[in-house]
Design the sequence.
């Protein structure tokens, strides 16, 4: 199995800029994948009724999604409380009206009879590859699983504990979660450069910079 890396800072925005101009469906599932850490198989398996709750003729975004992971069989709750996630999802759903609960949230353009099945993992991977090329991003190690790994890396960079992220992802060990972060040699060099332990060491480092 080939190694998959998270997207670097700036790459997600470049891909989103490209996808927004091309297709609102692809923009939305990519945005949702990067901000929920859903595996692509679970993301593309979502139905409209999974994210929408109705009251009469009106609808609203559910505060959370309850699902059973295809890979592990575990039950997970995905919260849609992030205002940006809710806003982007609502924007996209407005383009799908009338909404049918049993319809795929992200339908393929390739229909079977009168029905449109969900976008496939292969199609999604191809879309990510095209977006990377269009945004001048190296496609090596980049794919749909990069979205999930990017979420992990951003959480770690933001200071959230490994234990909390491990619990969120349902990993069996913290080492698996850390492996998702895709730390590079540049990250190690940066750590060595910036970490100063002890008051005297910090003062000497400050003096050298003057």
Sequence:
């Amino acid at each position: 199995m080939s190694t998959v890396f998270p997207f670097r800072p700036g790459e997600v925005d470049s891909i989103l800029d490209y996808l927004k101009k091309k297709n609102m469906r692809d923009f939305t599932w990519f945005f949702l994948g990067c901000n929920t850490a859903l595996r692509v198989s679970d993301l593309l398996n979502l139905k409209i009724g999974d994210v929408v709750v109705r009251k009469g003729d009106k609808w609203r975004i559910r505060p959370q999604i309850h699902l059973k992971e295809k890979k592990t069989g575990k039950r997970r709750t995905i919260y849609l409380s992030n205002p940006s996630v809710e806003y982007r999802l609502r924007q996209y759903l407005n383009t799908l009206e009338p909404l049918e609960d049993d319809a795929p949230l992200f339908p393929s353009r390739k229909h079977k009879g009168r029905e449109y099945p969900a976008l496939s993992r292969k199609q999604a991977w191809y879309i990510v590859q095209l977006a990377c090329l269009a945004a001048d991003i190296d496609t090596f190690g980049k794919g749909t699983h990069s979205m999930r790994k990017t979420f992990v890396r951003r959480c770690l960079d933001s200071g959230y504990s490994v234990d909390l992220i491990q619990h969120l992802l349902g990993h069996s060990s913290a080492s698996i979660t850390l492996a998702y972060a895709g730390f590079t040699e540049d990250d190690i060099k940066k750590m060595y450069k910036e970490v100063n332990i002890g008051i005297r060491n910090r003062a000497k480092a400050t003096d050298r910079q003057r």
User: Anything to note?
Assistant: Residues 11-174 form a domain with the hpI Integrase; Chain A fold (CATH 1.10.443.10). The beta strands are 52-55, 58-61, 64-68, 75-79. The two ends are 49 Å apart (CA to CA).
